[in-house]
Write a structure and sequence with these properties.
The chain is α/β, with parallel strands linked by helices. It contains twelve helices and eleven strands. The strands form three sheets. Strands 1-7-6-2-3 form a five-stranded parallel β-sheet. A four-stranded parallel β-sheet has the order 9-8-10-11, with helices on both faces. It is globular and about 50 Å long.
C-alpha cells in the first residue's frame, strides 16, 4: 500500500489509489478519496475519479474566527459528503500536498483514525498520467461522530511563548526570505502579518526539504538526517509553523507521522498570528 515501509499506515502510492479506484467511487465502500486545494478551479477541470473536492479556504476554515472548523462543523462537512469516522480517507492536493497535509492534521485533531496522504499529491497524479475525470461524485449523506479534539498535536500562542522560554525546538518551514523578514509572504500570496521575521530561536528548515523533486516524501534516513542536523531527534517537543499553517502541516506530517516523533505539534496560527501580536518577540535576519 505504501511507498516506503516506514510509512505504511499513513502514506499510500498513486499505484495503490489507482488499483482501488472502483472502491473509491462506490457509495457503499469504506474508502473515500478527497482532493484539498486552496480553490477548486483545478478540481473542477480534472481530478482522480471518485475524489471529493474540498476548498481549504471556505470549507475547512471557520469564516469568522480565522480558525479551523469547530467539531460540529467538521462533523457536518464530512457527513454531508458521505464520509464516516470508520472510513479510510486518502487526501491529496496541490503544492506537494500543502493543504491536504493541513486537512490530514485536522482529521487527526478530530480523532479520525485512518487518514492517509497520497504520496506526491495532485501534481504527481497528473504528471504520471493517472486517470482523471471532471465528474463530481455524489455519496449518500451519513452521520459523522468525531472523537476529538486531540490537543496533543496542536500548538497555541502560549505554547510558543513557553517554547521560547524553555528552549524547545521551533521549526520555521517558510522560505529563507520569509524567515529573515525580507518578505512577508511567498510571491503572489497575500501578506497576512504586520511584521516580518521569525520566532526567536527557530530553525529554518524548509517544508520542501522533506520532499523529493516529484513531491513524494523522502526516506526515513533522509528525514532523520535533515532534522538531526539541527538537533531535532524526537526526544522533546518540536513546534512547526509557517505563515498560515499549511506548509507546517507538511513538516508536522514528516515529523509526527513518518518519523514517529510523538511530541511534534503544529502551530496553525503561525506567522499570521505571531507577526500580528502586540509585543510578541521576533528576530530578523538569517539567524546564523
Amino acid at each position: 500500500m505504501a511507498t516506503d515501509e516506514y510509512a505504511n499506515d499513513v502514506l499510500v502510492s498513486a499505484d495503490w489509489v489507482e488499483d482501488n479506484l472502483d472502491e473509491f467511487q462506490d457509495d457503499g465502500s469504506d474508502l473515500r478519496l478527497v482532493e484539498v486545494d486552496v480553490d477548486t478551479e483545478a478540481y473542477d477541470e480534472e481530478h482522480a475519479p471518485g475524489a471529493i473536492g474540498f476548498n481549504w479556504e471556505t470549507q475547512l476554515q471557520d469564516q469568522t474566527r480565522r480558525d479551523i472548523l469547530d467539531k460540529d462543523e467538521f462533523e457536518d462537512l464530512l457527513g454531508s459528503h458521505g464520509i464516516s469516522e470508520d472510513d479510510t480517507v486518502v487526501l491529496y492536493g496541490d503544492n506537494s500536498n500543502w493543504f491536504a497535509a493541513y486537512a490530514y492534521w485536522q482529521f487527526k485533531y478530530y480523532g479520525h483514525d485512518d487518514a492517509r496522504l497520497l504520496d506526491g499529491g495532485r501534481e504527481y497524479w497528473l504528471e504520471n498520467d493517472y486517470p482523471t475525470t471532471d465528474e463530481v461524485p455524489a455519496f449518500s449523506e451519513t452521520e459523522y461522530d468525531a472523537s476529538g479534539p486531540r490537543e496533543s498535536i496542536r500548538a497555541y500562542r502560549d505554547d510558543v511563548e513557553n517554547a521560547i522560554d524553555r528552549g524547545v525546538p521551533l521549526v520555521d518551514v517558510r522560505s529563507p526570505e520569509e524567515f529573515s523578514g525580507e518578505v512577508l509572504a511567498p510571491p503572489g500570496l497575500q501578506e497576512t502579518a504586520q511584521r516580518g521575521g521569525h520566532v526567536p530561536g527557530a530553525k529554518n528548515i524548509s517544508w520542501a526539504a522533506v520532499t523529493n523533486d516529484d513531491g513524494t516524501f523522502k526516506s526515513r534516513d533522509e528525514l532523520e538526517a535533515l532534522y538531526a542536523d539541527e538537533g531535532i531527534e524526537g526526544d522533546s517537543t518540536t513546534v512547526a509553523y509557517c505563515r498560515i499553517g499549511e506548509r507546517s502541516s507538511v513538516a508536522w506530517f514528516a515529523l509526527h507521522e513518518l518519523l514517529g516523533y510523538e511530541d511534534a505539534v503544529n502551530y496553525d496560527g503561525s506567522w499570521t498570528e505571531w507577526g500580528n501580536l502586540v509585543d510578541a518577540p521576533i528576530e530578523q535576519g538569517s539567524g546564523e
